[in-house]
Amino acid sequence: MVELVDLVRALLRDPSSRLNAVLAGWEFPVSREWLALTDLFDMQLSSKSKRKPKPYPRPYDKSKTRIGGSKKVSRTPAEMRALLARPRVAKPQVH
Q1: I need a surface site. Which of 30, 31, 54, 56 has the fewest CB within 10 A?
Q2: Which residues contact 46 (CB under 8 A, 6 or more apart)?
């Protein structure tokens, strides 16, 4: 059983495994070398281009990995003031 847990941990750390790609929400698995080479490709292309080129597509979507999710919530300034004016509840301290 310990060997199985170690193997799954190794798969989760490896970006080229399908298990890691599925759990991370990526479109396809890639190696660490692929990630480094696409960054180098984008930097080289942007240094030689007069206009800002579109970066090479990555397997992960920026909106999926953004903190807070991809859904934007809009509130009026009055609603934000009311939210910030509410008293905060103190968390109980565990000793």
Answers
A1: 54
A2: 52, 53
